[in-house]
Amino acid sequence: MAFTIIEVTATYLKPDSSPATGSVTFIATETMRDTVTNESISPIELVAVLDETGYISVNLAATNGDFTTPRGVTYEVTERINDSNENKYFIAINKGAVDGAVDLADLVPNIQTVITQNYATKEYVDSLELFGAESIEFTPTTEIFSTNVQDAIVEVREKSKFVFEQYSATTIWYITHNLRFYPNVTVVDSGDNSVIGDVEYIDSNNLIVTFAHSFAGKAYLS
């Protein structure tokens, strides 16, 4: 018996009941295997963009299939809804979902929300251009040299990301990024396939990522 695929849906609205915009990402916490078919599902990030009604739909393998191993796998869900908080939590997908579908609103997270933070979305920042942000004076600093708001925002964006390239195959990547904060880390191998590793933050400028297998690739920090 192969994996049981369940449709996961959700609808996001603004306080005035109009459709929200943004995206929701899903990624399994580790590789799931079917012991009968000998098939595996790798933990690759799935991004669902809200449509014009605020609706999303993704197909995910049930985490409790009869022949699915290991037990206890969950999906990390990250909600990035514009003009709202960013929320990250974990869910399990039941093979017995009615009609093979389930709505996120009906699922109880396995643990409490692990990230809730306010942030200015790219859409909001870009909208500042409509209000003459380029003409709003900005006082340069020792690190940001722009003299208007919009240019300063662009400069901050560029200085808030870092790409690390690991040329030789290894299980441990030592990354010095000098961003002076604890960034999100996305890793791909040399074939641009997403890979999940264990991230250890040494300090605000250095981190280590450990993997189960050796490979070369890139890490995108932001």
Characterize the structure shown.
The protein is mostly beta strands and 222 residues long. The protein has three domains: 5-117, Immunoglobulin-like, CATH 2.60.40.3390; 122-159, no CATH class; 162-221, no CATH class. It is built from two helices and 16 strands. The chain has helices at residues 122-127, 149-159; strands at 5-11, 22-28, 32-34, 39-41, 46-49, 55-61, 68-69, 75-81, 86-91, 101-103, 115-117, 162-176, 185-189, 194-195, 198-203, 206-221. The strands form four sheets. It has a five-stranded antiparallel β-sheet, with no helix packed on it. Strands 12, 13, 14, 15 and 16 form a five-stranded antiparallel β-sheet that branches. A three-stranded mixed β-sheet has the order 6-1-10, with no helix packed on it. Strand 8 and strand 9 (86-91) form a beta hairpin. It is flat. 16% of the residues are buried.
Question: What is the fold's blueprint, element by element?
Answer:
Blueprint: E1 5-11, E2 22-28, E3 32-34, E4 39-41, E5 46-49, E6 55-61, E7 68-69, E8 75-81, E9 86-91, E10 101-103, E11 115-117, H1 122-127, H2 149-159, E12 162-176, E13 185-189, E14 194-195, E15 198-203, E16 206-221
Parallel strand pairs: 1-10
Antiparallel strand pairs: 1-6, 2-5, 2-8, 3-4, 3-7, 8-9, 9-11, 12-16, 13-14, 13-16, 15-16
